[in-house]
UniProtKB/TrEMBL annotation:
<keyword id="KW-0863">Zinc-finger</keyword>
<protein>
    <recommendedName>
        <fullName>RNA polymerase II transcription factor B subunit 3</fullName>
    </recommendedName>
</protein>
<dbReference type="GO" id="GO:0061575">
    <property type="term" value="F:cyclin-dependent protein serine/threonine kinase activator activity"/>
</dbReference>
<keyword id="KW-0539">Nucleus</keyword>
<dbReference type="InterPro" id="IPR015877">
    <property type="entry name" value="MAT1_centre"/>
</dbReference>
<dbReference type="GO" id="GO:0008270">
    <property type="term" value="F:zinc ion binding"/>
</dbReference>
<feature type="domain" description="RING-type">
    <location>
        <begin position="12"/>
        <end position="54"/>
    </location>
</feature>
<feature type="coiled-coil region">
    <location>
        <begin position="156"/>
        <end position="235"/>
    </location>
</feature>
<keyword id="KW-0479">Metal-binding</keyword>
<dbReference type="Pfam" id="PF06391">
    <property type="entry name" value="MAT1"/>
</dbReference>
<dbReference type="Pfam" id="PF17121">
    <property type="entry name" value="zf-C3HC4_5"/>
</dbReference>
<dbReference type="GO" id="GO:0006289">
    <property type="term" value="P:nucleotide-excision repair"/>
</dbReference>
<dbReference type="InterPro" id="IPR004575">
    <property type="entry name" value="MAT1/Tfb3"/>
</dbReference>
<keyword id="KW-0862">Zinc</keyword>
<dbReference type="GO" id="GO:0006357">
    <property type="term" value="P:regulation of transcription by RNA polymerase II"/>
</dbReference>
<dbReference type="InterPro" id="IPR013083">
    <property type="entry name" value="Znf_RING/FYVE/PHD"/>
</dbReference>
<keyword id="KW-0175">Coiled coil</keyword>
Length: 327
């Protein structure tokens, strides 16, 4: 149980040192019991090894390396956050591990029930036993999911570093271009002074020419900056670790390279007189509507013969070689 504060939130209950008199005093807590102890007392009591908690009636064995700074003012919230981290390290499945959203919702409900019981001291022994059993039964799966999440976190870190690098690169280019623009303006001013001294044109004409040249250069520099930014972003997206790379699907093998006509193994004889005669096709050949559309009786016979002889003389092994060489 967590001991209630006695009202002296800024006083160490062990050495009775007050923060008012020692402004630099730091309080630490241990997840075993969450009793607040100043850093000096932790060093003095636990430097030589594990020792019982100095709070009266606690008696839990504490180790110095488990002490930490309190993040939340409410110690109950601090304790619940620690419990949630520990439970979620064991129950670390994600939605992609479940077949249906309903199964994932039931899993999340179970996790919240465990956290609630441990945070409020309800059936602590049974809950801890069930948590330990689940961890032992699913050690490999928990480890695999932990490694998967570690990879995701590493990818996010790389992405953030890449974004920052891209931002710095853009700023560097922009500053360089600004310096070049300042140098250009300085030269323009000097050229204007020289022209005003030696040119026969009026000052208004010279100013108009200079303004036109400045406007033209500004537009050009703007396009250059846009092109550079687009190129940087394209390189960034190409190397983005969070973008899934889709491999080019391997095309299935097709004989004759898919679109190459085989060498004809037949000769189409004439269709009039000594050629092949088909009453149905010959009758269609007299129809002007078909003829106007480009239909010819020879095409019918050629297609039938192509489908009949297709594959004859095609050696699959020989046909695969040129395709495999270009794959």
């Amino acid at each position: 149980m967590i001991a209630e504060d006695d009202g002296s939130k800024d006083m160490c209950p062990i050495c009775r040192t007050d923060r008012y008199l020692s402004p630099n005093m730091v309080f630490l807590i241990n997840p075993e019991c969450y009793h607040k102890i100043c850093e000096s007392c932790v060093d003095r009591i636990f430097s030589l090894g594990p020792s019982p908690c100095p709070y009266p009636g606690c008696g839990k064995i504490l180790r110095k390396n488990r002490f930490k700074h309190q993040v939340f003012e409410d110690i109950k919230v601090e304790r619940e956050i620690d419990i949630r981290k520990r439970v979620c390290t064991i129950y670390n499945s994600t939605e992609e591990d479940f077949d249906t959203p309903q199964a994932y919702d039931e899993y999340l409900t179970k996790v919240e029930d465990i956290i609630f019981n441990l945070s409020h001291g309800i059936d602590v022994e049974a809950t801890e036993a069930a948590l330990t059993k689940y961890e032992q039964d699913n050690k490999i799966a928990i480890l695999e999911k932990s490694m998967r999440e570690s990879k995701k976190n590493a990818d996010v870190l790389k992405f953030q570093e890449s974004v920052e690098k891209l931002k710095q690169e853009k700023l560097k280019i922009q500053r360089q271009m600004e310096l070049e623009d300042l140098e250009f303006k300085r030269k323009q001013q000097q050229e204007l002074l020289d022209k005003l001294s030696h040119s026969s044109n009026t000052s208004e004409e010279l100013l108009r020419q200079q303004q036109a040249a400045t406007l033209k250069r500004t537009e050009l520099r703007k396009r250059e900056l846009e092109q550079i930014n687009q190129q940087l972003e394209a390189n960034f997206n190409e190397n983005n670790p969070l973008v899934e790379r889709k491999e080019t699907p391997k095309m299935p093998f097709t004989p004759f390279c898919g679109d190459r006509d085989p060498h004809p193994l037949y000769k189409l004889a004439g269709t009039d007189g000594d050629g092949y005669y088909d009453p149905f096709a010959s009758e269609l050949a007299k129809n002007k509507e078909y003829l106007a559309g480009g239909w010819r009786i020879n095409d019918v016979f050629a297609r039938v013969l192509d489908e009949t002889f297709m594959g004859l003389g095609c050696v699959i092994g020989e046909e695969k070689k040129p395709q495999e060489a270009t794959a």
